[in-house]
Amino acid sequence: MRVVLLSLLFLIMPGSGHGQCSSVNTTFKKNQRTLLDLLAKNAPLQDGFYNSSVGNNSDQVYGVSQCKALISSNDCTNCLKLSIGSYDGCSEFSEMESMSSACTTKISNKNIIGVWTNSSSATFGNQGLDKPLVFSKGFSMMQDLASSVPYQPLMYQAAEIDVGVDGERYGLAQCGRDLSKLNCQNCLEDVLVRYRSYVENRTGWEILGSSCSMWYSNVSDAFNNQEVSVTALTPSALPSDSDQFPPGKPSVTSGN
Prior knowledge:
The N and C termini lie close together (12 Å). The chain has 4 helices and 12 strands; from the N terminus they run βαββαβββαββαββββ. It has helices at 26-42, 73-85, 132-148, 181-199, and strands at residues 11-14, 49-54, 61-67, 95-99, 103-108, 120-124, 156-162, 168-175, 205-209, 212-217, 230-232, 250-254. A 7-stranded mixed beta sheet has the order 11-7-8-10-9-6-12, with helices on one face. Strands 1-4-5-3-2 form a 5-stranded antiparallel beta sheet. It has 2 domains: 11-108, 2-Layer Sandwich (Killer Toxin P4, Chain A); 120-242, Gnk2 domain, C-X8-C-X2-C motif (Killer Toxin P4, Chain A, 2-Layer Sandwich).
């Protein structure tokens, strides 16, 4: 059974600070386009992550782009090109985010580099459900990834766990490399708490965020043709809830 994940559908979130496209001046719009082109060009060359800014004072725009760990440079490039293309419909917004299974991009007139923003969405397939014990083991693996990813050189890690007669479960988690270790861990733990009830017992799911993302599956496609060290993790206890989370806009969708 395979989970179908959204790879070419983008969730676009315009900033709430400007309701009209005409609210941003022409210089800012030009800086936006210059920055988007820089992000799309450089992220694939920098292990899938790049942040920068263009302009000065009120015309300055900041941006961060990241591709899913383990995908090829070409796939990263193609995803980011589609991502920045999504801005063309109304590029005058001062803040926008684009999220897909393979890449994320966010731009703002505020300095968002190094800032944990908590916009996120969860997607899962309809290929059946796991036994509660199997799900518990797999979810514990994802919790362990939330604790270990912040200390990885490129802030991502893949893992797998043997769940007995039901085979193996595979996980991948990553954070934006501009985040601190603490914010990375908080971000990953936050989305696990937010979406646990929605992904409960699912054989495959993904949580996409503007600052961190997680992927979980009962098939190893994410690791095919990749030279990556996969860590076998043992289950651990659930993390305790925390109220020290930034506001976000979670959403949930299901796939076929």
